[in-house]
Every structure is written in structure tokens, then in C-alpha cells.
Amino acid sequence: MFGFDAFRTTGGWRLLGAIALAAAMLGVAAPARAGNDVVYVSANRNASIKVAKGKPKTIMTSAAFYQIVIGDPEIANVNPLTDKSFYVLGNNLGTTGIALFDQNKQLVGTIDIEVTLDTDQLASTIRASVPDAKIKVGSANGRVVLSGEADDAVAADKASKIASRFSGNEEVINSVNISSSQQVQLNVRFVEINRQAGQDLGAKYAANFAYGIGNRKVVLNPDGGTVTGAGTGEIIGSLLSNGVSIDIAIKALEERGLARRLAEPNLIARSGQTASFLAGGEFPIPVSEDNGKISVTYKKYGVGLDFTPTVLK
Questions:
Q1: What is the distance between the alpha carbons of residues 44 and 60, in angstroms, rounded to a whole number?
Q2: What is the pLDDT of residues 41-84, one digit of tens each?
Q3: Is it the case that residue 27 has pLDDT exceeding 80?
Q4: What are phi and psi for residue 199, nearest 5 degrees?
Q5: Domain encompassing residue 54
Q6: Do the domain assignments include residue 313?
Q7: Within a domain: residue 64?
Q8: SS (H, E, C) the chain
Q9: Domain check: are 168 and 201 in the same one?
Q10: 189-231 pLDDT, tens digit each
Q11: What DSSP character marks residue 180?
């Protein structure tokens, strides 16, 4: 704990009054004017204030005090201005406390101080970049916090990227809601295909080269000819690129017993949010820890998909 007397002698108080009078005569703004925080202090409850790191802030109190004590001067410095005002300078991110006492060493009140990031400039940049969004910028535990609403996921993502550049290595807490109800539906098919599907499908594969550029063409061969040098994925992809329906290609493989459908989920997600699907489950795996104890972790098996759509303007 670190403390000092705010006012020791009457002469000192007169000197402070003379300085304030001189400042008024010179047209200089005296401390604790409009725009500064007014804190109502009481011995029965705690007050709290937030101070941006590296920026001083003048605090006015509802009751007079004689002595001020700061819990951790490495977090913040305090200096008295009058018997009802002082200013705080945030040194490092974190929290500390202030105790105010009267001349009889009786507690006047306590104030919790949180030194936060200076997010005013970041908020101005976000407002200029996405003017239609109603995004609020704050900080908590040394991390940038975004809240409010955005019209679409593009605006929310843009604000998040700007905040990430501002915060450096610290993670950005993005709690921005998308006001519009933009939804995307994705129809998915998980198909298991035999590696020899191309040969049994009767695809004829040939590679032609012209002007040093490889041109490949796949032709369906009803006679069931052989395939040379073509993999399953390459053949299916070539079929699709030549206008063959995916349903026809999969059905042809299924009729020959060369493919089977594992799952056909329909995923629906709002723009900017993630929808997940897992055809399978989880199984436990024992893991030995350094202290000799055995813990259990779960690993997923099967086929799965994470789907995060973004609706563009």
C-alpha cells in the first residue's frame, strides 16, 4: 500500500486556491470541469472507475477527503487536486483500489480502478470503415471487446480484423450480433468410392498435349473399356467438368457396388455463424499424465463437416 497526505497545512490550501484563481484569470481550464467523472463515495459501498492506459483522468468526489491511498502504484498513480478532486494516470493494464480518509483517519470511501486499453481511436476507425454498423468497442482484462449489431457478416468480420490489428497478440472478443436474418442452406453428400471405380465404370481416359499445355478428356465407354493413368477423383472431376450430373455419376457407381452414401445432411446456418455435422461419434482414449494418473480424452471418428457461410453484399 502507498499513501500520502493530500492537504497538510492551511497555507498549502491557500496556495492551491491562489493557483486555481490564477488559472481562472488566465483563462486556463481548472481541473474537475465538465466532462470529468463524478464519483459518489461512501464508507458503506465501493465505487468504480475505468481509466485508459497512458491517459490522465480527473475524478471528482461527492465528499471531501484529506488523505488518499493507492493499492498498487504500478497499476496507476493518483495525485490530489482539491479536497474533492484528484487525477488518476493509468500505468499498466490491471485493477487496483483507492481509499480516501478524512482528517480524523476515518474512511470516507473506496474506489476500484481498472486501467484499460485506449479504445477511442479504434472505435473511430471502425465507425469510419463500417459507418452503418452499430458496433461498440470496449476492453476487458486487457483484451478488446466488440459488441452491438452489424447489418451483415461482412461488416462484422471487417470490424473484427481492424480490432485484431489494434490488439496485437491478444485475442479479440467478438460479441457482435448480425441484425439481418440471412441464412444459407448447404446440401452435403458423403460418398465412399472404390479406388477401382474408374475402371469398372468404363471410362476411357486419354491425355493430349497442345502447345505445352496438358488437355485431358474423359469419355464414357459403354463397352466397358479399361482406364490407364487416371485416379477416381480425377475421373469423377472430369465427368462433372464435361457436364455429367453428379447424380448420374454417383448412381452409376452405386449400381456397380463401387460407391455407397454415408450421409446426406442438410446444414442451415446464419451468415457468419458455423453449423457442424458429424456422422460417427467419439471414443475415449486413456492418456498418461506426468504425475502417473490416467486421464481420458475423446477423439471423433466418422465423417464430419464445419460450415461457415458468409453472405456478401
A1: 18
A2: 776 778 888 888 888 888 888 888 999 999 999 999 999 999 88
A3: no
A4: -65, -45
A5: 2-116
A6: no
A7: yes
A8: CEEEECCCCHHHHHHHHHHHHHHHHCCCCCCCCCCCEEECCECCEEEEEEEEECCEEEEEECCCCCEEEECCCCCEEEEEEECCEEEEEECCCEEEEEEEECCCCCEEEEEEEEEECCCHHHHHHHHHHCCCCEEEEEEECCEEEEEEEECCHHHHHHHHHHHHHHHCCCCCEECCEECCCCEEEEECCEEEECCCHHHHHCEEEEEEEECCEEEEEEEECCCCCCCCCCCHHHHHHHHHHCCCCHHHHHHHHHHCCCEEEEECCEEEEECCCCEEEEEEEEEEEEEECCCCCEEEEEEEEEEEEEECCCCCC
A9: no
A10: 888 877 665 555 544 333 332 333 333 333 434 444 434 444 5
A11: S
Best CA proximity match to 47, nearest among 56, 55, 39? 39
According to the model, what pLDDT value does residue 74 have?
Answer: 92
Residue 86 has pLDDT above 50, yes or no: yes
Residue 186's SS3 state is strand
Q: How many domains does the chain divide into?
A: 4
Question: Same structural domain for residues 253 and 299?
Answer: no
- Which of 236, 163, 161, 248 minimizes the C-alpha distance to 203? 236
Last residue of a domain, one of 68, 91, 116: 116
Q: What is the pTM of this model?
A: 0.44
Distance (Å, whole) CA 272 – CA 202: 43
Q: What is the pLDDT of residue 76?
A: 92
Q: Is residue 187 in some structural domain?
A: no
Listed residues 116, 133, 150: the one ending a domain? 116
Query: Can you tell me the distance from the alpha carbon of 7 to that of 47, in angstroms, rounded to the nearest whole number?
Result: 23
